[in-house]
Write a structure and sequence with these properties.
single chain; alpha/beta; Rossmann fold; Helicase, Ruva Protein, domain 3; 4 domains; five-stranded parallel β-sheet; 18 helices; 14% strand; elongated
């Protein structure tokens, strides 16, 4: 087998340097020696050193070990994962303990036992390789997370409602508090959850999503809490649950309103105690997560109807964030449309696609019951089917406003409708108050009064 590991020996005694070099050079890939510790930084920058054997004293007659300790600290500043073995002629246990506390891997005395020295070096070389592999995996994970974040970017737009959402998200992200995200299907609740995680101090850890709607009730405990080998018929291997996997990161439970009362009690116990037991095991597993939940249901109504536990709601809803429907986002619809046109134009090799004015008006006037997801699918379908560079109203085949199904969430309160009309007009006219007042058919002073009444900031 080919020798592995590059050894650096830093020792003031030339006889010891020669002796160690002759002894170790046939056991390892390379051995570098120096009697001058000032050369350590340049050697580390030019060679991939696996282990450093560092003398504790360099000046004649020195016995304190202070020089070795000082260089140990400098080495670890250069490479926090460096493997350093301290070497001294004085077997002072206090020196050994102090050096190891400061980051040394081991401590040997002169004269050394050859077999023990070889065994120690081979063991710590494996440690060095393990540390490098761990760092590589961490960097790889970080890059993967960054790539995932790019795939899930939020298009905030310029609407007032999305600006308010952005502010709420940035505030909440700085805390570890539990968040409940509510909104209609297709509004992007999962994107908001990922954005909270991305902006949090846990952003370098994992983001684990659990879609309750896709979990069969019979496998809920196994998926969430994990199981031991043989815990049930199909448990052929040991498996960690989502709580364990999400440890130190964020756990996102989507469509939590679909959870049965029986499973709600199981979930509540885990969240309250911050610990779980794998199915088939009595061993307690502790976890540290940031919990984000989401639902498209009226959770308060479910509580009143005894379909959702009030105590669980308290645990998951320290902060509630509402994601607005697409119909309330005004000209954001056009910004989203342009984004999807570019995305699918590239995907289907149809670059430079544009919407004409009538197509834009059709998209703006549609109710979008399926929200952003419906808009995305409508744009993708039109890109696939068109043979032109300019998309017209006929390229979009969806329900007209009159045919749109009645949405029970739409308010019919006159004050609410007036506020929404003002906000839509402001967004459409990019907060030009004169144009907004003209579009609403009111005077500018009246617009000021109404903005003050509804606390709408220009």
């Amino acid at each position: 087998m080919q020798p592995v590991g590059n050894i650096l020996i830093v020792e003031d005694d030339p006889d010891i340097l020669v002796s160690l070099n002759l002894f170790l050079k046939n056991e390892f890939a390379s051995v570098t020696t120096t009697n001058n510790p000032n050369e350590i930084p340049s050697i580390l920058s030019s060679k991939d050193i696996s282990v450093i054997i560092l003398d504790m004293n360099f000046k004649p007659g020195a016995r304190s070990g202070e020089e070795g300790i000082a260089w140990l600290k400098k080495i670890l500043e250069i490479d926090a994962d460096a493997v350093v073995i301290m070497l001294t002629a004085y077997g002072d246990i206090n020196l050994a303990v102090n050096a190891i506390k400061l980051g040394a891997t081991d401590f040997i005395t002169k004269p050394w036992d050859n077999d023990k020295l070889i065994a120690t070096l081979k063991t710590v070389i494996k440690l060095r390789f393990s540390r490098k592999e761990l760092n590589y995996l961490k960097q790889k994970q970080k890059q993967i997370l960054q790539d995932i974040d790019r795939d899930y970017d939020i298009l905030w737009g310029r609407s007032l409602v999305m600006n308010e959402l952005r502010i709420a998200v940035s505030k909440v992200a700085q805390t570890d508090t539990s968040v409940l995200i509510v909104g209609e299907n297709g509004t992007g609740k999962d994107l908001v959850a990922r954005e909270i995680h991305r902006l949090s101090h846990r952003s370098n850890e994992v983001f684990i999503k659990v879609d309750i709607g896709s979990l069969n009730e019979n496998v809920f405990e196994s998926e969430m809490f994990g199981h031991t080998k043989g815990a049930f018929t199909d448990a052929k291997d040991e498996k960690a649950g989502r709580f364990e996997i999400a440890d130190k990161g964020t756990l996102f439970i989507d469509e939590i309103g679909n959870l049965s009362l029986y499973l709600q009690s199981k979930l509540l116990t885990a969240i309250q105690n911050r610990e779980i037991n794998r199915v088939g095991s009595n061993k307690t597993v502790h976890f540290d997560i940031r919990l984000i939940s989401a639902t498209n249901k009226d959770i308060q109504r479910l509580v009143k109807e005894n379909l959702f536990r009030q105590d669980l709601l308290y645990r998951i809803e320290t902060i509630r964030i509402v994601v607005p429907p697409l119909r309330d986002r005004g000209d954001d619809i056009l910004q989203l449309s342009d984004y999807f046109l570019e995305k699918y134009g590239i995907k289907y090799n149809k670059p430079q696609l544009k919407l004409n004015g009538d197509a834009q008006n059709k998209l703006l006037s549609y109710n979008w019951p399926g929200n952003v997801r419906e808009l995305q699918h409508a744009i993708e379908k039109s890109v696939i089917m068109t043979d032109q560079n300019i998309l017209k109203p006929s390229d979009f085949n969806f329900l007209t406003q009159k045919e749109s199904p009645v949405n029970s969430n739409i308010t019919l309160n006159l004050s609410d409708l007036e506020r929404q009309a003002i906000e839509l007009a402001l967004n459409k006219n990019r907060f030009n108050l004169s144009e907004t007042a003209k579009e609403l058919g009111i005077s500018r002073p009246t617009l000021y009064k109404k903005m003050e009444k509804y606390k709408i900031k220009p």
